[in-house]
Every structure is written in structure tokens, then in C-alpha cells.
Amino acid sequence: MRDIVSCFSENAVNVSHSSCSSYSSNACISPSIVPSVQNAVTGVYRVILSTGKQCLIKLTWCKNQNGGQGLIVNLGDDPSTCFKLNTNLRFFRKKKGNRVIESDRLKIEVFWDLSAAKYDAGPEPVDGFYVLVMVDSEIGLVLGDMAEEAVTKKLKNATPVAKVALISRQEHCSGSTLYSTKAQFCDTGIVHDILIRCSGDHEGLKHPVLSVSIDTKTVIKVKRLQWNFRGNQTIFVDGLLVDLMWDAYDWFFKPVTGSATFLFRTRSGLDSRLWLEEKMVKKDQDRVEFSLLICACKNT
Question: Tens digit of pLDDT for each residue in 49-94?
């Protein structure tokens, strides 16, 4: 009897091998359209301490209309543990420092240095920075190319290091109907290029077409999107089942204020449920899954 993963993979689009996609490898790439830009990026990290305690750290990079960069750190979804940092030039003194976040359960301390940070078009710095989050005196989260140097200077060799995993990433984009990003679906996988494109009548098409590609390979192509504005497809990436969901309802019925939603979420091959149904099922706390949520606005 075949295993469940192999049964799923027969009907899933495999992006690990060039012969497994029935679509053109460049079907949704057009040099004439400028990709939209990211306004905010949120990463949710699961931290497991040496004592066995667990917590979620939510870190958000954002950019306002005036070009100012911001950083928000939360302990899970608890608003009382929120720490906000505005890195506008007039707040230059805040680009480097540390802050203790009050919590009834854990002691959280954030160290950062963004004084030499460099940015591309998005809100996340690309180099010249570090963010270090200590949880109960353990190294919980370390980000940035300067992080290793910062840890060496600030902490002793005996400082315990907690286990950490990125379990969710959320991106807010605006501009055109071309959205590009990168994602690593598991710790042992590679970083994949993701491109989402909605073609319209300005390109000679009678009906809008939605295309999603991974590493230049189209994994879904939805024709007549105005009638098929919601749906899902299972794809197979790095040996994992990934549920891809799209909801473009607001693009057609709330074009000014609404946004389309695209969700990539890994799924265990032993679980026959789609992620949409999993909210009714108690999750295994030891299983690390990953999800990428993209909220795409047509207007700035």
C-alpha cells in the first residue's frame, strides 16, 4: 500500500523538478510592469527555552508614507508587551539601544543597532544591522549580519541559546498587480523565489488571469479570475505538501480599499485536511509548520 504523501503528490504541482509542471516557466514574468513594494513584513518565531518554556515572538518591520522605517516587537499577540521603534532621522538616537518588555510570564529584553542599516525598497534592512531578543536571559532571537559580533560583545560564552524557528511570515504589498518575494518552507530547504501576477485587459486579455510561479515555474494559472476569485491548490516543494490559497474578491468588489490574500502553508502528509479545516483540530505543539501570508493592494 502506498504512503499518503505519494498519493497527495500525484495531484500536486511539483516545483522541485522541471518536468513536473505543465505550465510555461516564464508565463507570469513581464519586464514592462514594475513589481509592487512591501509596506510591512511580520515574522512570527517560536522560541523554546532550555527549561522547556515556549513563547512566540512577533517582529514587524514597517515603512510609513514619509519613508520612515519602523520596528515593532511583541510577545505573541499580547498588546501589553508591545515595543515600538521609529527610526526616522529626527529620532536618530533610537536607532541603537535596548529595552525591557514587561511580561508576567517571561523577561524579554531587546537589543538593536540600526544606525548603519541599509534598505532596499522594502521595510526590512538588508545589512548593517542587528536585532537581539533575550528571553529569560537566554538568546532567543538573533537577526542581522552584525548579530554574531553583537552577541560576542554583549554576552558570555556560557549564555544558553534557545531553539528558534520561523513559523509564519506576513507581507503587505501595494502598487501594481505584480508581487515578488522569497520563502524558505523548511529549515533544510532552499530559499525559493515567488512571483504572483494578475494580467488584465490592458494586456489584451478579455478576462483577468492569475498566475503564481515558484523559481520561474508556474504552479497555478487561474483563468476568468473575476469568477474564480477564491480557491486553493496543493503544491509539492522540497518534499513538503504546501497548500496555496488565493482570495481576490476585494480586487473586484472593493477595488479602492480591499486587498487580495495569498497564503502558502506547509502540511503534514499524514494529515488529509486542508489548512482551512485545521483550525478545529488541536495542533501538535512539537511540529513546526510554516506559513507565508501576502496581502496585496492594487493601490498605494
Answer: 999 999 999 999 998 766 678 899 998 888 778 888 876 645 444 6
- Residue 294 DSSP class: E
Q: Is 93 helix (H, G, I), strand (E, B) or coil?
A: helix
Torsion 87-122-126-192 (CA) sign: positive
Instruction: Please name which of 27, 6, 7, 11 lies closest in space to residue 234, comparing C-alpha atoms.
Output: 11
Comparing CA positions, the residue from 84, 40, 27, 68 lying closest to residue 222 is 27
CA gap 202, 186 in Å, rounded: 38
Q: How far is CA 193 from the centre of its chain?
A: 12
Q: What is the pLDDT of residues 221-275, one digit of tens each?
A: 999 898 999 999 999 888 889 999 999 999 888 877 788 999 999 986 555 455 4
3-state secondary structure of 245: strand
- Is 27 in contact with 213 (CB distance < 8 Å)? yes
Helices and strands of the chain, counted as H and E runs: 3, 20
What single letter denotes the amino acid at residue 99?
Answer: R
